[in-house]
Amino acid sequence: MKLINDDEDLFLHDFSNTRSGEKEPKETEVSATREFSFTSGPADAPQSSGRRRRRGCSLLVWTTVIALIAGGIAFYIRYFIPHTSESKTRGYVTVVEKRGIIFKTFEGEMVSETRLSDTTRVYSRDFQFSIPDDSLGRLLQGFQSTGRPVEITTKKYYGTLPWRGATNTILTDIRPQ
User: Fold this and answer.
1) Contact 95, 144 (CB under 8 A)
2) Cα 129 from chain centroid?
């Protein structure tokens, strides 16, 4: 506590060292002659607590921004960048049906010619894919159970999105053979 226009700090003053002949000023005299201020403190008082608080807040903001950007990049890579952009498979279409509750997409299954011609391995599964384009789905339904082979071009993604279909393999083109 410092009084204005005074070099002596009365809060830390040791009044036990006063001589017996001296008279201590009364409280009314001190308040009448000097002004008291709460806003200004000693000039040499450290102001580091405010800086430390601001530094911690800005560190938290930057960490959050960097985490959001990294999460956005990871989401974009997982769902929007195909890891196989042009894969061709030749075979016979067995099933093409429209599935979905909110997002209706065509889902197809196909028996690959390489799996049919391989006699050393036991037949495992059909090749499954999603068809987000309705015109390609209707065209492929025409080849279902006809016995005519088709060559399809697909893209493979790491993750599935509901409007793209139920599988991570997406049909992009059909060529009848």
Assistant:
1) yes
2) 28
pLDDT of residue 147: 84
What is the rounded distance in angstroms from the CA atom of residue 49 to the CA atom of residue 55?
Answer: 10
CA 102/CA 162 separation, integer angstroms:
9
> What's the pTM value of the predicted model, to 2 decimals?
0.61
The strand pairing partners of 91, in sequence order, are 112, 150
Strand partners, 129: 108
- Segments in 36-147 forming alpha helices (H): 48-80, 113-117, 134-142
CB atoms near residue 20 (< 10 Å): 5
Query: Quick check: 156 and 108 in contact, CB under 8 A?
Result: no
Q: What are phi and psi of 129, to 5 degrees?
A: -155, 165
Residue 146, phi then psi, degrees to nearest 5: -95, -20
pLDDT of amino acid 42: 55
Judge whether 152 and 173 are in contact, CB under 8 Å.
yes
